[in-house]
Design brief:
CATH architecture of the largest domain: 3-Layer(aba) Sandwich
Number of domains: 2
Structural class: alpha/beta
Helix content: 40-55%
Order of helices and strands: EHEHEHEEHEHEEEHHEHEHHEEHHHHH
Mean pLDDT: 82
Distance between the termini: 15 Å
CATH topology of the largest domain: Rossmann fold
Number of helices: 15
Radius of gyration: 25 Å
Low-confidence stretches: 1-27, 274-287, 339-344, 355-360
Shape: elongated
């Protein structure tokens, strides 16, 4: 049985380093996969702000990868190699959050049986990532503002002032500007956090990255659960690319993990027959695997302006070798509409000598 997408490790899944070439490939960002214009715009901003010590505010829907962006900023900054400390502000009860941030002395409150360093001290000379910053309660907002402005604080139960050198990266799925207008968030703290805003696009606005993400998750999750994935049928990929992903990349990862567990013979099954109450609908749904492959190739070629090769070409987006894509175009009789079919296919064949014998 023939399938259409060969799974391989992603070339764009690379840990960050100090590359001085802003256009170098593969990207020097940890676990950030894709070549869409929306992601490129985000990473261009990351490249610019990372070498500074400026505060960064990452905003975006849940599941869009805010922590990965924060780690990328740290990884390509001069603070790389220093601590990267994180705290989810929404996951800590109010009465413990201040201690988590600033630390406490022994006996500062009931249950404080020993001195504890806060996250700001632990992140000294490094980066502190505060996720869900919009959930910081009002009583703590002035203290957070002070440490951002002065880089100093006191532990609970102590009058001694401590000085730190911390680069803050904050993230939230909330609309902080709206919270300021409603009186739920201090305007001065908001302006201090919003020095360099980074807006992460939802997955539905970067659909061209879905095939690369699917292949990456299928490969890594298949290895993790002991069910290696070799092929992803075109109809499965088409269904995954057609869904709106309200839970974004996190939902996609969970869905691929489910499919990997259900896989047989190394073939990724289609997990998208239904997702909750949303049935997957693809206009003009192909009725055969061959039709599915042809439709997906056509849609991808149209999306990239019929560019076949290169990092932004159709072959890269489909996870295929350039020569393999050209062969499949010949097999399905696909040619650029503005050219005569035979002439165009002949020109493509000339770009890949002995293509037929290589592929067949």
């Amino acid at each position: 049985m023939s399938h259409d997408f060969t799974v391989r490790p992603s070339d764009d899944c690379v840990c960050g380093d100090q590359s001085s070439d802003p256009d170098s490939r593969p990207r020097k960002f940890e676990q950030l996969i894709g070549n869409s214009p929306a992601l490129d715009a985000v990473l261009d901003g990351v490249r610019r702000v990372a070498p500074t010590s400026s505060t960064v505010l990452i905003q975006g829907e849940t599941g869009t990868g805010k922590e990965l962006i924060a780690r990328a900023i740290h990884n390509i900054s001069p603070r790389c190699g220093r601590p990267f400390i994180k705290l989810n502000c929404a996951a800590i009860p109010l009465d413990l959050l201040e201690s988590e941030l600033f630390g406490h002395e022994k006996g500062a409150f009931t249950g404080a049986i020993a001195q504890k360093l806060g996250r700001f001290e632990l992140a000294d000379k490094g980066t502190l990532f505060l996720d869900e910053i919009g959930d910081i309660p009002a009583p703590l907002q002035p203290k957070l503002l002070r440490i951002l402005q002065e880089q100093e604080f006191e532990r609970l139960g102590s009058s001694r002032t401590h000085h730190v050198d911390v680069r803050l990266v904050a993230a939230t799925h909330r609309d902080l500007a709206e919270m300021v207008r409603n009186g739920d968030f201090r305007s001065d703290l908001y302006f201090r956090l919003n020095v360099f805003p980074v807006e992460l696009p939802p997955l539905r606005d970067r659909r061209e990255d879905i095939p690369a993400l699917v292949q990456h998750f299928a490969e890594t999750l298949g290895r993790r659960v002991g069910r290696p994935i070799v092929d992803i049928p075109a109809e499965t990929m088409m269904a995954l690319c057609s869904y709106d992903w309200p839970g974004n990349i996190r939902e996609l990862q969970n869905m691929i993990e489910r499919a990997v567990i259900l896989s047989e013979d190394g073939v990724l099954p289609n997990p998208m027959l239904t997702v909750g109450s949303q049935r997957i609908v693809v206009s003009s749904v192909p009725t055969t695997l061959i039709d599915s492959e042809r439709a997906l190739i056509l849609r991808t070629l149209e999306a990239v302006g019929w560019v076949i090769g290169g990092r932004d070409g159709a072959a890269a987006r489909l996870g295929l070798k350039r020569t393999t894509l050209i062969y499949k175009m010949q097999k399905h009789g696909i040619s650029r509409p503005s050219f005569d079919g035979d002439v165009e296919l002949s020109r493509l064949a000339e770009q890949a000598p002995d293509l037929v014998t290589q592929v067949q």
